[in-house]
Amino acid sequence: MNGRGLTAQLKDKTTKNLWGLSYPIMIGQILHTLMMLVDIWFVSELIGERATAAVGVSTALMGVIRVGPFLLSAGAIALVSQYTGSNNPQGIRKVAQNAMMMALGIGSVLGAILFFNVEGALRIFGESSPGVLEEATKYLSIAFISIPFIFFNVTTKAIVEATGDTKNPVKVFLLMNGINIFLDYLFIAQMNMGVEGASLATLLSEIIGLIFMGILMFRKVLPFREIIKGIWRFHGKTCGDILKIGGFSMVQMMIRPITGLIMMRIVLGIGEIPAAAFSIGGRLFEFVFIFLKGLQIAVSVLVGQSLGKGHLQQAYKVVRKGLFLSGLNMIVFFLLYVVFGGFLMSLFTSNEELITIGVLYLRICYLGVLFVVFPIVFGGAFTGAGDTFPPMVSGIVGNVFIKIPLAYYLGSLSGLQATGVWIAIALSVVFEAAVISLWFKKKGIRPFIQHQQTLNDIKEVRS
User: Fold this and answer.
1) I want to staple 148 with a disulfide (CB 3.0 to 4.6 A). Which of 19, 108, 247, 261 is the partner?
2) In 3-state terms, what secondary structure has residue 330?
3) In angstroms, rounded to a whole number, what is the distance separating the alpha carbons of residues 201 and 183?
4) Residue 463 belongs to some domain of the structure
5) Residue 434: how many CA atoms within 13 Å on its side-chain side?
6) Which residues lie below 8 Å from residue 254, measured CB to CB, with a gap of 6+?
7) Burial of 416 (0-12, 13-18, 19+ CB in 10 A)
8) In this structure, is residue 384 part of a structural domain?
């Protein structure tokens, strides 16, 4: 593509719409990633490698928990975006009411179960590093209290974004991240609270987030007067639709952190230094997904709204532009991780062995991560349509059938150790991309909320 063609692509209306929805989320992701890096920096510099590995173990486990809200948020995105496209405010409010109530209910039950069974939750890591697991227990004893707030914040954020407003939720999450960073400094650097300080900072920021997201919901989506009128109640079919769409999405999203836990156990079996490299490298890779996560939400929202309006061709155009923009993102970050990997790792540690292993992680894994554009864009399109089964299947193939067996063999049996694990991660992304790409090419997308015009468009496209 020449310069003129690239300029035309960037000026296209659909591209601008994708960017308009993506960039606020991107800003939020940047600051969230910086907050995560500041968090791990405080722990690594002020406490040590063992605490760094412990935070990695804890965040890997919390990563599984943080997938739970996708049971609700994925369905909310599909339904609210399609109701927005079809100009149905009553449908939007009904989805919002039920999703919020389920978020608080499910989050509270799950949080209580885990809070009283912290050691049991850590058994997945075995006894490979008792010191690390002891520190992780301290972290999680506080972190599990935040689960109801996490469920509420993620779900309400998805609802507001599905209406086309991606700016206000990001403002709330920026506030949360700023509070988290300040509290990290206060609790870890000034009060010497160790890993407990890092966890407490996150908990308090989530509580602040719940307050402001609740205010945003009542101002933008669900007027408070409807609660006063007694309209606040469960609607069985709406709850069923949310859970039907979100169920597959939650499984698909949960596969990655669950396999991440297993990968952490494999790496811990190799040593604490590889585990620390795995933790730091994983945080650094968050930069790759800053734009991609925003783009995926934008694709979901625009595809859903297009289908709600009955514009199938526009939905496919959104997908094509999404692939174009995500491809540019991957080109930009290629040099950063392949050429400057050593510099990036040196920002977090002076341990030469840790830097060497971390550089290999960044370079090898990124060769596979290049293919993540397909799961991101096609997965976003399927979610906007309300069909979350294909992303789930591709995630299972890549992460369960490829990554885990290959990582165990290459990391534990072949003698490659940590390098073998990095190779397995890269190959798993390639297989996941292949599966979802073939599925999208063969089946395409259909709206979850059926509209006659949309059905007519589908017939025209197939003819």
Assistant:
1) 108
2) helix
3) 5
4) no
5) 10
6) 64, 67, 68, 70
7) middle
8) yes
Give 184's Cβ-side CA count (13 Å radius).
22
Taking residues 60-81, what's their average pLDDT? 85
Q: What is the pLDDT of residues 376-398, one digit of tens each?
A: 999 999 999 989 899 999 999 99
Rounded to 5°, the CA angle 257-158-81 comes to 125
- The count of domains in the chain is 1
Q: In whole angstroms, give the CA distance from residue 6 to residue 292.
A: 19
Q: What is the pLDDT of residue 227?
A: 58
Residue 145 lies in a domain: yes
Q: Could you list the residue range(s) of the whole structural domain that residue 108 is in? A: 3-458
> How far is residue 268's CA from residue 128's CA, in Å, rounded to a whole number?
6
pTM score over 0.70: yes
pLDDT digits (tens, 9 = 90+) for 327-351: 988 988 888 888 888 888 888 888 8
Q: Give me the DSSP letters along 194-259.
A: THHHHHHHHHHHHHHHHHHHHHHHHHHTS-HHHHHTT-----HHHHHHHHHHHHHHHHHHHHHHHH
